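Exercise 7.
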Amino acid sequence: MPARWTRRAPLALALTAVAAAACNSGNLTTPGAGNELTGDVGLTIRDEVETTISALTLSTSLTPIGTTRTPASSAPCVVSSTPTDTDGDGVPDDATYVLTAPPCQFEGWRGGTVDLVGQLRLQDPAPTDGGFGYDATLTVLRSRYTNAAKDAIYDVERNGSRTLSGSVAALLLTSDLQLMRTFIGKPDANIEEQWTVNYVPSTPLQINGPVNSGTLDISGTMSWTRGNEQLALVVTTPTPLEYDATCTDTVQRIKNGELHAAGDFGDMVGFVRVRWNGCGQDPTFGFGVK
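Solution. The predicted structure, written as tokens, is:
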């Protein structure tokens, strides 16, 4: 059974107001000051979706999609001490990357920068048979996001595993991650993410090639703990996410789609809605009552 909120009084008032607004607007409302949780969960999902897309290839795992090295360079920011790639498919047989920033600092993240620090181990599940698959282990792998004005900074630290498999026609990425996300002026959130991502490209993929335009369907679970807040959420994609590879010079490359994170919010069963509305635009967040 999903965990319930333990901080009752103020949340009950906020969620009651949200429920009333939702009932008057087609069961959806935009988050207000009394419902900041919707925005915080939505922002977390936004970042995880973007990171998931970058995880579809090794090169974009090391240089996030839509960003460039600081200073500009086409070379990866880190090279493994064991780069052997027996089958030449771009996935090393067994390599560990230790990232530091700099040089693993990138510009282009919403006008600001993202720094990568920590350890990423990549293993080829079939080192003598070329393909798209990998097994990844993330150890204290931290992304630090800084806005253009450098007055808003937050971190997402990831530990756990990712597994990629598939063919030229589709990829399957499974994630089992433990996240620690900071929030400006708020307590940190601890998040358990167990997602399955089905990615179908619009044109056949090429080994060592880029992430093509295509659709993503994400399902799984996400638990949320922050102070006395506790949620167990079920993640679904009622409208597949449309990734547009031609949307350049931005990390915001999803032009359409909707993702829901549903659970028991205190005395109310509902869902946080994340809706993408166009290339180069951040998604909007809302709360729905079931």
